[in-house]
Amino acid sequence: MCTLRIALVKIMRNCDSKRAKNAVLSLLPIIGWMRIYRVREWLLGDVVSGISTGLIAIMQGLAFSLLASLPPSYGLYTAFFPMLTYFFLGTSRHISVGSFPVLSLMVGAVVTRLVPDEGPPANITGFEGLTQDQQRVLVASSVTFLMGIFQLAMGVLQVGFIVVYLSDTLVSGFTTAAAVHILVSQLKFVLGLTVPGISGPLSIIYTLEKIFVQITSTNICDLVMSILIMAMVFIVKELNDIYKAKLPVPIPIEVIMTVIACGVSYGFNFEKRYDVEIVGKMVSGYEPPMAPNVEVFQESAVEAFPIAIVGFAVAFSVAKVYSIKHDYTIDGNQELIAFGISNIFGASFRSFAASTALSRTAVQESSGGKTQIAGLISAMMAMIVTVALGFLLEPLPRSVLGALVIVNLKGMLMQFREIPYLWRRDKTECLVWLGTCLGAILLGLDLGLVVGLGVELLTIFEPKGVKIFRIPSPIFFANIEFFRDKLVEAVGFNPLRVLRKRNKALRKIKKQLQQKDDDITEALKEFIRIDVDVYIVACDVYIVEKLHMCMFFDDEILTSMFFPTLHDAMLHVLEKHKDDTKNGWVVRKNCSWTYYTILPELAWLLLPSGFKITRQKI
What we know:
mainly alpha; about 60% helix
């Protein structure tokens, strides 16, 4: 008890006003940007941006709920609740928080596995007395709640760096595979077919098989309406891109086509006259909070973790792009906390997994949005539709939502064009892309992500014989021996022993040992004399000048040993030895060496004729 009291006293002494202020600003980033908010300059842009983004968020929420195998009204929940908490906790001022098609599809895979279209649901006690839709909502919200727990835990544990293991190539291949899954999943709505949801490995093959078996039963009205809407939306989106500099805001073509489709469907009674499946009864208002189901946690933990990773990786990458463009910083760990709390809060009110969508964020930024006030306004618009205007969407054909989903896949599907570019630039990167994409298409998104990470790790090679050694402190007479000992330990062999075995150098080595010269040049020459190339990288100019003054250079230690960065040294060595086939050289122009951070301190790169890359730090 006494020890605890002493610890608390120490904490209170260390907690001054400045530290408390920094802690509050870190946990509530809204305070930071609200203090500098320029009402006259930014408010109008935020309002216009919020309205434009809100219209798109509503349409995407309705459409992406089909990917999650949920009633469309729950997509409006995802457009509202997560944004409320992110408004206070998020560090990005521009991303639009809400539904994202890849996450919706991953949640939908869990939903259809536990509550299939055909057959009994999983043996979960919480399902008793619930309809199929209620069971699916329970599964989706529980998976989202667990996803939020994972994200919050990673944020608290400060592991935001985890996204560095998801390279751009891997993410591109993964999202392309997700686009293929989304496309196939929406074909049943576009064609007006009754195809049960299938999850698991090869699910895309089985789904296509069932679609082709029923292809003669296609609803012509659904098909024609979908083709017309996809054509119109595609054309107007292209015009938006061409004339974006002249348009104050992009033309909300999805909203326009949705309104027209609702009116035509209601006026001509598509549901009864042409047997068109419509959205149907929309939930008016909001339901009370709901606790997640622990049994669903146990059944979906394996799937919830990759959903959490993908959701954060996508949101963080988009947020980083706009933070660089507008010159402010974002905090990866705080973003994890923000999304974790947002998903936990949203799941309590029956929303499904939230992240961001690049198209929605682009609209929010390009239409004048400066802060998350635009995001808050877009959430308010979703609330208005849910509370007061939802009934107007009831006659909307589901094929229209499917068409809107498909036409918005253009950006992800166009990533197939990266294959020839990657093949020319780096065949290893192309292998990662293809392995991730094919694995995710055939095995499902969760297993596909694991396959992609495995392929990526297998392609990370260590050129045989390379040792990267760094000492983060000045070298002077008192630590030279320590430096040499650590250097020999890092290399794995003692150059003096090698020299002793070489008859030509034996006499010279003995002479040097008798002189007991501890100069740092001898540590370098010991390696040079046994044909080990030595390079010094990231060395400040004033140090090089000092070395010249101290007569550091001679016929063995040359100025050509110095390189400004580790990356430059590695490229030089690879170019020098690119024809050395007996050592299994592989030349890569865009490789993992760029990820080594060398501070402006003395760093040593020891390069024998063969290569193996490691990193040692004293």
